[in-house]
Specification:
The chain is an alpha+beta fold. The chain has three domains: 12-239, Substrate Binding Domain Of Dnak, Chain:A, Domain 2, CATH 1.20.1270; 259-269 and 278-320, no CATH class; 324-387, SH3 Domains (SH3 type barrels, Roll). The chain has six helices and five strands. It has a five-stranded antiparallel sheet, with no helix packed on it. α1 runs parallel beside α3 (147-237) and α2 (58-144) runs antiparallel to α3. The chain is rod-shaped.
């Protein structure tokens, strides 16, 4: 039943009091809904921060995850606060229902006795009127001198007076019973008002303190967020685009040389025994054909400057790649290693950060020939710094 409804047996004062308690309960419910939404928002925000640093460095990742942790911790605190508000609402709701039910029973009992008393009053008044009329009729009959009618009228007047006296006694008893019920109702009403007043004081205090604590939590969170954001900004200042690109190349590289061109193989130049031809013979054919790609005539060789180096080393069926010798620097120069690099092939050299290497050749393709501790091999030129 909704508070303040017309069908309620409560008095106007009790309806106003219950309506105010219902409004207070609705205010607490609204605050609970707000805390629930705020907790969910902070929890989702904290989880979203954890999804950002999947490809970041460890230092930046830890800073960003710290921001997410702070929001998740706030969500946990809001969850505890929400639990306390919910328990407070349920406790007040059960207590309010208990006293409302008691007041409803008392009010119904009082109304029932009131109706019964009013009916007995109406009966008493009616019996008194009948007794007065019977006595007046007896007086008129006595004056006429008819003995028989006089006795009959006298008996009727006596019966009516007895009925009036009996109705009066019933009316008095109902009045006493109604007053007793009214006293009990009044005591219960006072008790209920005191309980509702205490509930209202508790509600105002609890919600005030909860709102105060929540404002402090948000203020602390803003300060903490600003500190963590500053740490993230400081960490981002060390971000170097070139270093990230070099790191990607270092960890994802598949080789140091691109695949060579596929050479032409003349069908008629094969060995007569094609069925027993071996991969070694095929490779030999490719070596000879590779020589033709760089010029087979003497005139062509003289017109091309500089000439291609001898093709003494061919990998499989791929033709050797021509490298311009003028792009190399043959003078030796010491360099410092900036990043660690692990050799991917036999012709590469392992280097560590801080090592001093001697660069023998610098090639335009970015792979330099370096020497360290008597060992030579290719290293990435972007990993070195001239001393």
């Amino acid at each position: 039943m909704r508070f303040g409804a017309r069908s309620s047996p409560f008095t106007l004062a009790m309806r106003c009091l219950c309506s105010d308690c219902w409004t207070g309960g609705r205010c607490a419910k609204t605050w609970r809904i707000y805390l629930s939404r705020e907790r969910k928002q902070k929890r989702d925000m904290g989880k979203s921060w954890f999804k950002l640093p999947e490809k970041q460095e460890d230092k930046q990742k830890s800073k960003i995850e710290s921001v997410g942790n702070s929001h998740i911790q706030l969500a946990v605190m809001l969850k505890d606060e929400l639990k306390g508000i919910e328990e407070f609402r349920e406790r007040q709701k059960e207590q309010r229902k208990k006293y409302e039910s008691a007041m409803e029973r008392m009010q119904k009992n009082k109304l029932s006795h009131y109706k019964k008393t009013m009916e007995s009053k109406k009966t008493y008044e009616q019996k008194c009127k009948e007794a007065d009329e019977a006595e007046q009729s007896f007086e008129r009959t006595s004056a006429s001198g008819n003995q028989k009618q006089t006795e009959k009228s006298q008996n009727k007047a006596k019966q009516c007076r007895d009925a009036a006296n009996e109705a009066e006694n019933v009316y008095k008893q109902n009045i006493e019973q109604l007053d007793k019920v009214r006293t009990e109702w009044e005591q219960e009403h006072i008790k209920t008002c005191e309980v509702f007043q205490l509930q209202e004081c508790d509600r105002i205090t609890i919600l005030r303190n909860s709102l105060w604590v929540h404002c402090n939590q948000l203020s602390m969170q803003c300060v903490k967020d600003d500190e963590l954001y500053e740490e993230v900004r400081v960490s981002l200042e060390n971000c170097v685009v070139e270093s990230d690109i070099d790191y990607f190349i270092k960890t994802k590289m598949t080789g140091t040389q691109p695949p060579g061109a596929i050479g032409y193989e003349n069908y008629y130049s094969r060995e007569p025994n094609r069925g027993n031809s071996s991969p070694t013979q095929s490779c030999g054919m490719m070596k000879r054909f590779s020589g033709l790609l760089h010029g087979s005539s003497k005139n062509n060789a003289e017109s091309i400057t500089p000439s291609a180096p001898p093709l003494e080393k061919a990998d499989g069926v791929y033709a050797s790649i021509f490298v311009n010798e003028q792009a190399r620097i043959t003078s030796s120069q010491d360099y410092r290693v900036l990043y660690d690099y692990t050799a991917q092939n036999m012709d590469e050299l392992d280097i560590n950060e801080g090592d001093i290497v001697a660069v023998i050749e610098e090639s335009e393709d970015g792979w330099w020939t370096a020497e360290r501790n008597g060992q030579r091999g290719f290293v990435p030129g972007s990993y070195l710094e001239r001393i």
